[in-house]
Design brief:
With about 190 residues, the chain is mostly helical. It contains 10 helices and 2 strands. It folds into 2 domains: about 70 residues, Winged helix-like DNA-binding domain superfamily/Winged helix DNA-binding domain (Arc Repressor Mutant, subunit A, Orthogonal Bundle), CATH 1.10.10; about 70 residues, no CATH class.
Length: about 190
């Protein structure tokens, strides 16, 4: 059995959330979560071993295709964690709106590792996160910066650094950032 305590691992929840959104391939999960491919592989092995993710192989015309889906238990665990984080987010918003920086600072000291998951899942938006970080006089971690940049107006340089060499040209041409489910459908945004 795996020695990882999933309930204490934000990266495991980010991978679960990506699969829950319909991403079924290893490469897409690694790209969207902005986690290292080796790390995603280890996480997926943990999730499969603990029966939170179901791995199926389908035979294609030229090769086998591996698809990943959440088990019922995996979906319940993910939804439970999201509800917990949403409650925490409501408390954070109350502290920020009332100027209670000491409570915010204490929360950030104890729960900083969950910020990338909250940004990735949409529980916290990038603008709120950056204003909170600014209010506390803190710097963003690389993971937080990647996800905050991907949520908001990510730059070509941000996406080129995190997407990898094979995708950096395409990411730079498209304006950067990862697709987190919200799509404007293209079009002209001139104002």
């Amino acid at each position: 059995m795996s020695s990882v305590r999933i309930n204490e691992s934000p990266n495991h929840f980010m991978v679960l959330d990506a699969i829950g959104r319909g991403l079924k391939s290893f490469d897409k999960i690694a790209k969207v979560t902005r986690l290292d491919k080796a790390q995603v592989e280890l996480i997926l092995n943990d999730l499969i071993e603990q029966r939170l993710v179901i791995r199926t192989e389908k035979k294609g015309l030229f090769a086998r295709k591996i698809e990943l889906t959440l088990s019922h238990t995996g979906l319940q665990l993910l939804n439970s964690k999201k509800q917990e984080l949403e409650k925490q987010m409501q408390q954070i918003q109350q502290w920020q709106s009332s100027g209670q920086t000491q409570q915010l600072q204490s929360y950030m000291d104890d729960n900083r590792m969950w910020m990338p998951m909250m940004l990735f899942s949409g529980i916290m938006n990038a603008v709120f996160f950056m204003s909170m970080i600014s209010m506390l006089g803190m710097a963003m971690s690389p993971a937080e910066s990647d996800l905050a940049g991907g949520e908001g107006a990510g730059t070509a340089a941000d996406s080129g650094e995190s997407a990898g060499a094979e995708d950096s040209g395409a990411a730079a041409d498209s304006g950067g950032g990862a697709d987190f489910g919200g799509d404007f459908g293209g079009g002209d945004f001139s104002f």
